């Protein structure tokens, strides 16, 4: 009736172009191949063969074939293949992978232009032919699919329309590789059993270079993704054999590729220290809500049909009235039975809807399995399955997203039911992205809990991986192939293999001689060395995994109070540091500063600094650069206006590590010194605040001078005499250095405003500029420092300059200690938080009067724990990790690259002090050579023999940091090898001890049985004998032997 009503209306049609459009859903080519493997699994196949046949006349040069021994299809079921979206697997309790009725068409058309299907079931042979070449050649727009069938015994056509059968077979002979009926029917012979399916794909798609997308020449036992490099790519994305091995979470089908069996895996059995976590959530509702809506719709339709049937039955009953004829009663009974059946169906649909409505509110439970991949630690991440089929692999979540060593090497596995999450049509993602992200977030939380439970970080991450042969600092490097490491890995992960006959999984006991053993493809239970599992009728052992529990971090009141106190202390320290600096808010604040500030534009200062540095480098190539602290303090005395005319004899400017000298006292001044004094109009008049600051700096400099043993009057006089000899050369560089000092002044003022920026700048100066030695300028600084009090009243300008320079000299020691502390940045450490150790890196350093504090940024900590923490250097809550080897670090370890240490620039010798004698220097050089040769690491980049020819300057520039790093790495490897050897020996001794105990128990059991038999024998011979203990029996036997003798 409906057809007659809508017969004149337009219908949607499936065009030929849709075949190509439908295939583009498969971006991952192996996903298209897996669609055909899924169909074989859904057909309950126990074996599938994936192989190629050479056909040079076809595009690509070969055909790709899929042959299975599943249930097959009859002609009626084969028609469902050509109905897009038609699927008999779609019901709520289905465990089938296919749900959309689209996989065969989309997958085959993604690989090639044409495919032909041969299937056998219940004595019927059916062939299905879907060809884009046929449609292109015939210029057809609609999709036409020939579908002939034969009798399996007689090979006669199963059709009522001979003309249709002839057209179908003629098209197949013309456009398929099988040109005759004999060739066509011979393909059914490849299906050896009573049922099965063969799919042949040909005219394969080509890349731009003319080669096929699938490479079958590189490895004759595999199918490789063409154009994908072997390095830097996960094996499952390049090798179909590797992808098929993990395609199913619980494989029950043998897969053969190019005639060789795939060693399928149960991922949970391939991991070290696996553990399962139960996860329950009510957030996965999208798929359940869809099922509820669908059940509600079906229930309403069934209810309408039931009402209509009951209404018809009542109307018929009223129409018949008192008619009691047999035909009337039969018609009425039929109508009533139909109404009753339809009503029962409506009630069933209503009950299904109610049950799904209740299930919508019930929480969904999933099992998260985590373990460590000790075979290849770089292959880590989450494997997400849907109805036992792999959907997503190597998904990073939780701590793994941070790129550190935390949770590195851990693999997670979860199987999500169809009612929890629905996959996309290409089975490479999930339809509801929001709920999938929620799943990954939950897995990340449980992953962090698993990492905490196995306590690898507390024992030492580097030590753990060294134990299994990962000796390289490169995370992606494979493990060592030494026998002891291979045996160590094999001891932790037993071999799990599938019987080729019963398809049950068996776990083999560990055997020392079975490490890296190659098992045959036809392995059966009879080959199992375990006597309890060497029969196919033996039950399959279930994997007994320990159950973990997700524990939420709950802080006690004491911990909360401690954390609050720590935050208060940090804020108080920041406040104290800010109070030490003065904020400039106006021009009046600038005028009140103790030293005038340069107001030149930044561009002019940068250009001037560049020119002065270039001139200084050209004039004094061997002099070390000025320290930033000295430059900043010295240039602060320069006024912001145009510079005054250069005096005739001005005091020489300071070098990097030497504050500028001050004029001598009046009592010891000479006419020559008087001529060097600057003119009076040029001297700026210091303000009261500047005088106070000068007095403070002079006191600091005087105290630092008094503490230094080198600043004695005798040595000061020697330095003064030596300084006057080199004053002429220093005067030539005065102007350039004064310009450079002016530029550095502004940098100091900016750095004083922010303490953190000052620390970063100090670190940059440390990398660029080595600490220079004392030179001639230091003598003049010390002399000027000694004469501070005498010159204060006579020459204010000289006093001001001297105070600045002496203050800079006092600050230099503090600055140097700050620089030394800054070297700790980037160190790998472990810090204790809430009683647990976490790995991290030093990102900040604070230097106090009596201690140094580190700011440690953690690789990973639980959600409610701070990401960083301040600790005291050398405290009980921080410890150093073993430094990485000089090899390149992996980019995904989230660690700063190792800085290259450049040899320090040779500084000018200090002629103001009496240096050590030549004999002392030669002795130190000889001792240094001996020490370096004694600890010399193997394979160091500098030959050991070159140490004999190194001079004192060469030894100063020797890369000791790299030297001792490599020495420590080698020493650690040696210790690890000793430890591994000891552990293996202990393991072997334990095995020997256990076997000896077993043999002892067996011997004691035999002895007990023997005693029992002897007692029984004696009682038969002599009935009145009574023996109640073993000692009595031994004594009785000994007595019998003695009497016999």
Throw out a few tags for this protein.
32 helices; 8-stranded mixed beta sheet; 23 strands; 44% helix
Morphology call: extended
Number of strands: 23
Return residue spans where pLDDT drops below 50 for at least 5 consecutive residues. 595-743, 746-807, 883-913
**How many helix segments?**
32
Overall residue-averaged pLDDT value: 75
Structural class: alpha+beta
CA-CA gap between termini: 115 Å
Q: Could you give a short account of the major beta sheet?
A: 8 strands, mixed
Helix content: 40-55%
Walk across the major sheet and give the strand order. 5-4-3-6-2-1-9-10
User: Whole-number radius of gyration?
Assistant: 44 Å
Tell me the β content.
5-15%
Structure description:
- The chain is built from 32 helices and 23 strands.
- The chain is α+β, with helices and mostly antiparallel strands.
- Helix content is 44%, strand content 13%.
- The N and C termini lie far apart (115 Å).
- A hairpin with a 6-residue loop joins strand 16 and strand 17.
- The strands form five sheets. Strands 5-4-3-6-2-1-9-10 form an eight-stranded mixed beta sheet.
- The longest helix is centred in the last third of the chain and has 62 residues, at 960-1021.
- Helix 10 (286-320) runs antiparallel to helix 11 (326-361), helix 18 (602-619) packs across helix 24 (734-753) and helix 22 (713-725) packs across helix 26 (776-786).
């Amino acid at each position: 009736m409906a057809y007659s009503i809508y017969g004149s209306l337009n219908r949607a049609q499936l065009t030929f172009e849709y075949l190509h459009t439908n295939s583009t859903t498969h971006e991952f080519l192996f996903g298209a191949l897996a669609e055909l493997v899924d169909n074989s699994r859904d057909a309950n196949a126990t074996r599938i063969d994936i192989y190629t046949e050479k056909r040079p006349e076809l595009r690509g040069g070969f055909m790709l074939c899929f042959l299975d021994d599943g249930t097959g299809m009859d002609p009626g079921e084969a028609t469902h293949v050509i109905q897009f979206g038609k699927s008999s697997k779609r019901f709520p309790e289905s465990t089938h992978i296919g749900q959309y009725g689209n996989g065969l068409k989309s997958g085959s058309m993604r690989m090639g232009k044409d495919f032909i299907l041969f299937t056998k079931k219940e004595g019927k042979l059916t062939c299905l032919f879907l060809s884009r070449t046929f449609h292109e050649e015939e210029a057809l727009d609609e999709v036409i699919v020939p579908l002939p069938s034969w009798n399996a015994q007689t090979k006669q056509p199963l059709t009522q329309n001979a003309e249709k059968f002839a057209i179908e077979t003629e098209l197949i002979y013309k456009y398929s590789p099988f040109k005759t009926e004999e060739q066509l029917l011979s393909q059914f012979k490849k299906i050896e059993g009573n049922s099965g399916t063969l799919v042949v794909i040909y005219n394969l798609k080509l890349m731009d270079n003319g080669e096929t997308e699938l490479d079958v020449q590189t490895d004759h036992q595999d199918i490789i993704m063409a154009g994908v490099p072997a390095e830097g790519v996960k094996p499952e994305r390049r090798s179909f054999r590797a992808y098929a091995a993990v395609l199913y979470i619980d494989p029950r089908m043998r897969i053969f590729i190019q005639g060789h069996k795939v060693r399928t895996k149960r991922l949970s059995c391939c991991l070290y220290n696996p553990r399962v976590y139960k996860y329950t959530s009510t957030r996965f509702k999208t798929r359940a809500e869809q099922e509820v809506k669908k059940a509600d719709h079906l229930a309403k339709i069934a209810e309408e049909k039931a009402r209509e049937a009951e209404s018809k039955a009542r109307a018929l009953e009223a129409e018949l009235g008192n008619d009691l004829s047999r035909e009337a009663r039969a018609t009425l009974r039929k109508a009533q039975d139909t109404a009753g059946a339809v009503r029962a169906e409506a009630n069933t649909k209503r009950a299904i809807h109610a049950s799904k409505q209740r299930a919508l509110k019930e929480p969904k439970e999933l099992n998260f399995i985590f373990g460590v991949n000790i075979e290849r630690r770089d292959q880590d991440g989450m494997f997400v399955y849907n109805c036992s089929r792999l959907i997503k692999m190597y998904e990073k979540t939780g701590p793994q997203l941070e790129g550190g060593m935390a949770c590195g090497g851990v693999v997670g596995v979860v199987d999500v039911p169809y009612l929890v999450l629905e996959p996309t049509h290409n089975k490479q993602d999930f339809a509801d992205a929001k709920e999938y992200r929620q799943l990954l977030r939950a897995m990340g939380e449980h992953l962090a809990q698993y990492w905490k439970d196995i306590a690898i970080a507390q024992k030492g991450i580097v030590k753990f991986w060294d134990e299994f042969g990962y000796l390289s600092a490169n995370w992606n490097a494979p493990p060592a192939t030494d026998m002891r490491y291979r045996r160590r890995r094999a001891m932790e992960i037993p071999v799990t293999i599938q019987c080729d006959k019963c398809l049950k999984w068996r776990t083999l006991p560990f055997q020392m001689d079975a490490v890296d053993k190659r098992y045959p493809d036809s392995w059966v239970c009879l080959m199992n060395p375990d006597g309890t599992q060497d029969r196919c009728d033996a039950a399959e052992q279930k994997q007994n995994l320990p159950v973990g529990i997700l524990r939420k971090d709950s802080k006690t009141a004491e911990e909360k109070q401690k954390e609050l106190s720590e935050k208060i202390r940090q804020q108080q320290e920041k406040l104290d540091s800010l109070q030490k600096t003065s904020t400039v808010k106006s021009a009046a604040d600038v005028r009140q500063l103790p030293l005038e500030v340069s107001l030149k534009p930044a561009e002019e200062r940068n250009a001037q600094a560049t020119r002065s540095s270039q001139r200084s480098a050209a004039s004094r190539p061997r002099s070390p650069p000025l320290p930033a602290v000295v430059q900043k303090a010295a240039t602060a005395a320069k006024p912001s206006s145009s510079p005054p005319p250069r005096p005739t004899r001005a005091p020489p400017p300071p070098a990097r590590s030497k504050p500028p000298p001050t004029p001598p006292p009046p009592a010891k001044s000479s006419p020559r010194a008087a001529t060097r004094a600057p003119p009076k109009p040029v001297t700026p008049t210091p303000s009261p605040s500047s005088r106070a600051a000068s007095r403070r700096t002079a006191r600091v400099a005087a105290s630092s001078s008094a503490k230094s043993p080198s600043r004695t009057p005798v040595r000061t006089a020697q330095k003064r005499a030596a300084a006057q000899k080199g004053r002429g050369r220093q005067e030539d560089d005065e102007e350039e250095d004064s310009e450079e000092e002016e530029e550095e002044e502004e940098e100091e003022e900016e750095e004083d405003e922010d303490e953190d920026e000052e620390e970063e700048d100090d670190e940059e100066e440390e990398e660029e500029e080595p600490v220079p030695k004392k030179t001639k300028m230091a003598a003049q600084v010390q002399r000027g420092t000694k004469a501070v009090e005498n010159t204060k009243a006579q020459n204010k300008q000289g006093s001001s300059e001297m105070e600045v320079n002496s203050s800079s000299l006092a600050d230099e020691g503090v600055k140097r200690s700050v620089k030394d502390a800054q070297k700790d940045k980037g160190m790998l450490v472990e810090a204790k938080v809430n009683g647990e150790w976490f790995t991290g890196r030093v990102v900040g350093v604070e230097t106090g009067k009596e201690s140094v504090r580190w700011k440690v940024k953690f690789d990973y900590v639980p959600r409610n724990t701070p990401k960083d923490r301040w600790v005291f250097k050398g405290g009980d809550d921080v410890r150093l990790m073993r430094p990485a080897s000089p090899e390149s670090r992996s980019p995904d370890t989230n660690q700063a690259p190792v800085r290259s240490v450049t040899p320090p620039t040779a500084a000018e010798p200090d002629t103001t002090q009496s240096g050590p004698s030549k004999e002392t220097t030669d002795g130190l050089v000889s001792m240094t050579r001996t020490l370096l040769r004694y600890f010399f690491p193997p394979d160091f980049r500098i030959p050991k023999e070159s140490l004999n020819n190194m001079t004192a300057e060469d030894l100063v520039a020797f890369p000791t940091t790299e030297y001792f790093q490599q020495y420590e790495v080698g020493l650690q490897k040696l210790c690890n090898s000793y430890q591994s050897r000891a552990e293996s020996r202990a393991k072997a001794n334990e095995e020997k001890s256990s076997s000896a105990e077993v043999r002892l128990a067996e011997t004691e059991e035999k002895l007990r049985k023997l005693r029992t038999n002897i007692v029984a024998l004696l009682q038969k011979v002599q009935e009145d004998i009574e023996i109640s203990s073993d000692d009595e029996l031994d004594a009785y036997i000994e007595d019998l032997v003695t009497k016999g003798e």
